[in-house]
Amino acid sequence: MIRPRTTESLASRRLGPVRLRHGSLSRATCLAMGLFVVLVAGCSGSSTSPTPAPTPTVSPTPTPIASPTPTRTPIPTASPTPALGFGPTGSMTTARDLHTATLLSDGRVLIAGGRNGSGFLASAELYDPTTGSFSPTGPMTAQRVGHTATALADGRVLIAGGGNDSSLASAELYDPKTGTFSPTGSMAGARGLGAAALLSDGRVLVAGGYDGSAVLASAELYDPKTGSFSPTGSMASPRDFYTATVLSDGRVLVVGGDGGSGYLASAELYDPKTGSFSPTGSMASPRAYHTATALSDGRVLIVGGTDGPNAVATAELYDPKTGTFSPTGSLIATRAIHTANLLPDGRVLIAGGWNGSAGLASVEFYDPGTGSFSPAASMTSARLGHAATTLSDGRVLVTGGKDRSDTVDLDSAELFGRSSGPAVSPTPSPGSGPTMSHVRSEHSATLLSDGRVLIDGGWDGSTYFASAELYEPKTGAFIPTGSMATARAWHTATLLSDGRVLLAGGLNGRQGLSVAELYVPKTGSFSRTGSMTAARVGATATLLSDGRVLIAGGWDGSTFLASAELYDPKTGSFSPTGSMATAREAHTATALPDGRVLIAGGTNDGSTEFALAELYDPATGTFSPTGSMITARDDQIATLLPDGRVLIAGGKNGSQYLASAELYDPKTGSFSPTGSMATPRAWHTATLLSDGRVLIAGGWDGSKALASVEAYDAKAGSFSPTGSLAAARDSHTATLLADGRVLIAGGQTDETSGYFASAELYQP
Predict the structure, then answer these.
(1) pLDDT tens by residue, 476-522
(2) How far, in Å, CA of 482 to CA of 565, rounded?
(3) Stated pTM of the model
(4) 3-state secondary structure 162-194
(5) Buried b vs exposed e over 106-115: b needs ≥16 C-beta within 10 Å?
(6) Are strands 363-367 and 372-376 parallel, antiparallel or unpaired?
(7) Which of 152, 127, 176 is nearest to 391 (CA)?
């Protein structure tokens, strides 16, 4: 991924994310290697973004195992009144993806098989919700990936089929009482990538899948009493990567999938009484890698997936009474190979997945009452090929998988619910906070007049966001608000004198933006306003004493800019003003007590930083030189101190990241040295606290993101450490709340997998 922390300029960084490798695999190769294709073509044709997909595991209340997004350090959800969200719990004993996770009758969860960088796994482990920890059990008699796992009525678990170096027909039973696996009767033929469903009479239906050479339509039944499989009626269409859902009347609904020559819209019903399949209504569009969830009213919710070339956001409902599908609300984000879990309140939790270019940490709820989707708190990590299991107490356990770039196998786990339960969580100093609805980096955060914080835009390494949300300090929760008209990152956000927020410029893919819009807190909506005279990325925006906003410098897509312009809220228009002496981006702009604006540092070629500084005078509309900084730098911070001086700290100079700091004195127009930070950093934040100190948090030191935090004391002229972030992050936002706390939100921690939805609170 292209990161804004390289030594290149913003111009070099704005070409957007590098796509994952392309390619295609045969189905046989997929099963043998454990590489379960994602989205665009499965293993039946050309693929745009091959990524592992899980094998659906079906139970009386089906919870298909899926995959999905980013964080290395889980952040617990904390608020005065516990809110629904994700929080960390103990880590697995083995990193794994494409495993199965099965709820046992005693409330524990059996994690079995899968793969990691060492190869296919026979190992298994148990998660105990009462302790929040994992412990080894088993192992299985064979290494397996793409198998099914079904909890039987007597408490044992049937593991069937799958593959390692070849497709498997074998099956085995896990006994929770002894913690051991033992062989049971084998299927009539090898199959993986199929589905299994527990029938009301205790038998298990195993159908479809892939045997190493062909997609299967055949099905068979496992009888726990005899420990053997026997044939039953075949499906009308061969299919794998489909879903199988047990209906309230005992029949099994089979939907979609890959038929070997294309994706399927068809569906069929298995009747245990007759042992046969019969057609039922078809979906509006073909799909595979979707989820199917039995709702409390007996209908089945079909969500997302891929139609062949694209991930889809559509959803449909199957009504067993009429045997027909009908459309329902669309997902907020396109996604396939996601998870879907029925919650105790009747809603469905849709988590993670793949949008065609990147894994998702985002989560949303489906409400059957309104037929609509709404954002929920995101997972703390991006995950592909993970498992999601509804626990006995209604919480959802998410385990393992790969990171968003499909490169690192994860051993971490997290819990969704109102309480993190026995979660093994860090005790950070600054403390932890709630979670945004999206992972976001290079977004903006603006303290509104009513004390709430507007979070908008940003990107996740592949997608630019138009969405926005509000942080409510009283409840400690993020809530949705209207979306911007234009998705953007690296934009400016300025609180106007009348309480509205001006969003201007920024980047959307390869395009620099000149468009601007206004957020109105009273209505929670965005509306267009006049456009800037030039597209600008990496510009600064400064509120002047007369209520206008000075926009200065930046990059327009081809040229670094010295020009500046003024936004007038009364007319809703931009007009040119005097130009800077030097074209620059990645600089700082600070409103001084006398109304002038200090412009300092920056770059205009991506490799040479400036020490030059200049002052803008609103009375004359002109820029004039002032003293130069001691050290040339860009991507530094600038903070107006209570005594009127400006603190400049950190940033970078060429390939060197800086710990040095200096002070600008408007009375003398000169810079002077002050104490240095303990750690060199750029893309950090600086927040003036209520007691006059400046909080420096996170950033990037040239090789890694930082969790360290330090405070600058202007009286002493020195920095001192003050706790640590719960997660190392840069390109985040920091907002001083009305009660003196600081909200740290979003950002990123590495070049591929570390985009955050998490937030934390610093208590001075």
Answers:
(1) 889 989 999 999 999 999 999 999 999 999 999 777 999 999 999 99
(2) 27
(3) 0.53
(4) CECCCECCCEEEEECCCCEEEEECCCCCCCECC
(5) eebbbbbbbb
(6) antiparallel
(7) 127
